[in-house]
Amino acid sequence: MQLGIIGLGKMGGNMRTRLRAAGQEVVGYDTDVSLSDAKDLTDLVSQLAAPRAVWVMVPSGEPTRQTIQALAPLLSEGDIVIDGGNSRFTDDQAHADLLAESGIGYLDVGVSGGVWGPENGYALMVGGDKEHVERLMPIFDALKPPGEFGFVHAGRVGAGHYAKMVHNGIEYGLMQAYAEGYELLAASEYVDDVPAVFKSWREGTVVRSWLLDLLDRALDEDPELAGIAGYAPDSGEGRWTVEESIRLAVPTPAIAASLYARFASRQDDSPTMKAVAALRNQFGGHAVKSKDESQ
Prior knowledge:
- Helix 8 packs across helix 12 (253-265).
- The chain has 2 domains: 2-155, 3-Layer(aba) Sandwich (Rossmann fold); 165-265, Orthogonal Bundle (N-(1-d-carboxylethyl)-l-norvaline Dehydrogenase, domain 2).
- It has a 7-stranded mixed sheet, with helices on both faces.
- Strand 3, helix 3 and strand 4 (80-83) form a beta-alpha-beta unit.
- It has helices spanning 10-21, 41-46, 62-71, 92-100, 117-120, 130-135, 137-143, 159-187, 194-200, 210-221, 237-247, 253-265, 271-284, 291-294, and strands spanning 2-6, 25-29, 53-56, 80-83, 105-112, 123-127, 151-155.
- The protein contains 14 helices and 7 strands.
């Protein structure tokens, strides 16, 4: 099957590699001409036989909106556009409506797998019409891991990105739990070999997971994580998950706490803790440290 891919970065480029290895024909376009198979979007579309399928893998928000708007007049009735980036689920219906004006289908696909995708396959969470999903199954089958898991038609337009949002929210919580366990073990006077403890958990325990395997790998490379700054950005998916939990009145304390922990990681000198120290000094006369003393 033919597929056009727009955006050949770490994800899009690796997806092209996996698809070609599975015998699928892929035409890729990227602003980096060294990566691109097409000169521009017009050239990309011209290299695809109708009915076409074009997978968009560019940053979420305005870059995705601009790409879909640019594609709309170039494609024809019966074509399908797939947004496989980390778009907010609320953007999907607007994209679907825009394309539907020209008889173009739309699928939103949450993609998980990261840099390990070419080797292990990608977990795919799809939203959109059943007929469009069925038509693209050769592509989905080539991208997903072997076996029965790693793919879901989650529901209507928006469901794929919604499922990926919740997936990432859970990921935030899992990573935070492992990280807190790491710090507690490292602080203990009882434990002599923290990396070995994590390694022991990789088999036979209820906390074993791929994330645990990756943490073990990181500790093999740097047992004290000395070369890594304690700063963790967030992609937006965790925020959206917490916002949805508020909208639907669903308690998500672990996910919310993990998101706030990332915010705290970016503060060299926390204004919140400054206020706490000042209050303790005011009501109880507790000593405060000057900035020089804390360095």
